[in-house]
Amino acid sequence: MKDKKTSIAVIGGGISGLTAAYWLMKKGHSITLFEKKSQVGGSIITERTEGYLVDYGPNSTLETSTALTELIRELGLEGQKIYGNEASNKRYIVRDGNLHPVPMKPGSFLTTRLFSLRSKLGLLMEPFIRPTAGDDISLADFVRHRLGDEFLDYAINPFVAGVYAGDPEKLSTSAAFPKLYALEKKYGSLIRGAIGGARERKKRNEVAKDRAKLFSFRDGMEVLPNKLAEKIGSGIVLNAEIKKIFSLEDGFQLDYLQHNKAARENFDRVLVAIPSKPLASLVGPLNPGFAAELKSIYYPPVAVVFTGFRASDVIRPLDGFGFLVPEIERRQILGSIWSSTIFPGRAPEGHVAFTTFVGGTRQPENTEMNETLLLKLVIDELNDLVGLRNEPVFTRMKKWAEAIPQYNVGYGKIQDLFTHMENEFPGLFIAGNIRKGISVGDSILCAHETVQKMNET
Ligand SMILES: Cc1cc2nc3c(=O)[nH]c(=O)nc-3n(C[C@H](O)[C@H](O)[C@H](O)COP(=O)(O)OP(=O)(O)OC[C@H]3O[C@@H](n4cnc5c(N)ncnc54)[C@H](O)[C@@H]3O)c2cc1C
To answer: What is the tens place of the pLDDT at every residue in 245-294?
Structure first.
């Protein structure tokens, strides 16, 4: 990076923009972070009230990178960090109206009623199945080819609903699940890849990513963006929506509205970390083709419905992370996590809490119901699946009109365009959950890599 203090604008105060701004500031640069809302955090929103702790966006994330672990330590948040309760390793999937534990060990896989004997035996053939052709196939086609229909319906479909609120028929294997895709490419089989990968990791003394621990903070996910905002301090400009970016000879000009008042400022460099639609309108004048691709990214709506019950009013023991619902089961919710089992302090003494997800690509129309109907729908489903003796004593909900970007087939082309834009406009950088993965951990890793790239050029 240039020796002189570089002025950098970071656009977007979600976790991507905040972590990038923090790391850039530490490098000694003059940072201005523009956030259009009156608070930072983006998708991360926590509310603590009446003894409940509600996370309306991410409830937890995985400790997937050393960058993330280091960041938390450096911010002094180690004491706030909490790992998922041991019980939450148990996860359920709905089949024929019952909750079946996801088999985590070979023994439980052999005895589970989640998959038929035929599918279980079929798995033995997986190492001998030829690799999929082409480099961009849907996750559904990939799984059907390697593992068969039943694994698609009762493992992958609900898993994808839980992570992306998405549709495996549309999601791209290589863009949305690059590690899975790489296993097949490198080893020719998922099973051989799992064994080979484990051996290689052992040699390199690494921990498998799929064993990464799930964590949050005692006071909810918002702790992280709030602490970052505290560190960045006066570098953050709230209620400031960037409207246009102009490329100048020696930097960029940003036109923005702050409290609806027009303003303009110049910077040496710009890092953008906002969703694809606002990004499209910003970069439209720079590259209309790129803007059109960005506009085509689909974000399904998701409603998050949080309900608190007296523990004695819930019939089934909440002895796990929660459950996911396969599409083939034809239910009205995507899944429900048992928030008070996973982390302590999410519900008052003697009470339990569920966070239930509705909508996604599967049933976007369900999010359009009014709140009374939506709540009834969730209570009916919970009653059916876990058994309720009474109404909830606490409820909260949030509808996300555009929740999570879908890395559908063809997404690789858009990912290439990010790099193309950065090359075409030196000094412009793009991060955020549209670039390299949608989780909080992925977003932070992408911000970290982007900052490293900025340090090197
Ligand atoms: C309901 C839900 C549940 C989720 N669950 C999980 C989970 O359990 N675990 C997990 O790891 N991940 C989860 N995720 C995904 C994860 O939360 C997000 O992908 C991640 O937080 C995205 O961060 P970001 O900073 O890239 O984007 P965002 O959080 O979208 O932040 C972008 C910011 O940019 C601002 N902005 C937009 N336009 C402009 C503009 N023109 N000028 C200035 N500012 C602008 C926005 O106001 C926003 O604050 C979930 C997401 C949702 C919605």
So the answer is: 999 999 999 999 999 899 999 999 999 999 999 999 999 989 999 999 99
**In this structure, which long-range contacts are made by residues 285-288, counting pairs with CB atoms below 8 Å and at least 24 apart in sequence?**
285/244, 285/245, 285/246, 286/245, 286/247, 286/421, 286/424, 286/425, 286/428, 287/421, 287/424
pLDDT of res. 206 = 52
| Residue that the structure tokens 């240039």 belong to | 2
Cβ–ligand 1 contact at 37 (below 6 Å) = yes
3-state SS assignment for residue 430: strand
**What is the distance, to the nearest Å, from the Cα of residue 35 to the centroid of all Cα atoms in its chain?**
20
Of the CA atoms within 13 Å of residue 437, those in its CB half-sphere come to 16
The answer, yes or no, to whether any atom of ligand 1 lies below 6 A from the CB of 221, is no
Mutate to test the pocket of ligand 1, among 43, 226, 267, 397 (most ligand atoms within 8 A of CB): 43
Give the model's confidence band at 1: pLDDT under 50 very low, under 70 low, under 90 confident, else very high.
very low
450 lines ligand 1 (CB under 6 A): no
| Distance (Å, whole) CA 414 – CA 416 | 5
Residue 276: CB within 6 Å of ligand 1?
no
Strand partners, 335: 324, 357
Indicate the SS3 state at residue 274: coil
Q: Whose CA is nearest to atom 4 of ligand 1?
A: 58
pLDDT over threshold 80, residue 201: no
Mutation test of ligand 1: which of 72, 239, 271, 274 has the most ligand atoms closer than 8 Å to its C-beta?
Answer: 274
Top pLDDT among 422 and 204 is at: 422
pLDDT recorded at residue 347:
98
Structural domains for the chain: 7-44+224-297+406-456 (3.50.50.60), 115-211 (1.10.3110.10), 300-400 (3.90.660.20)
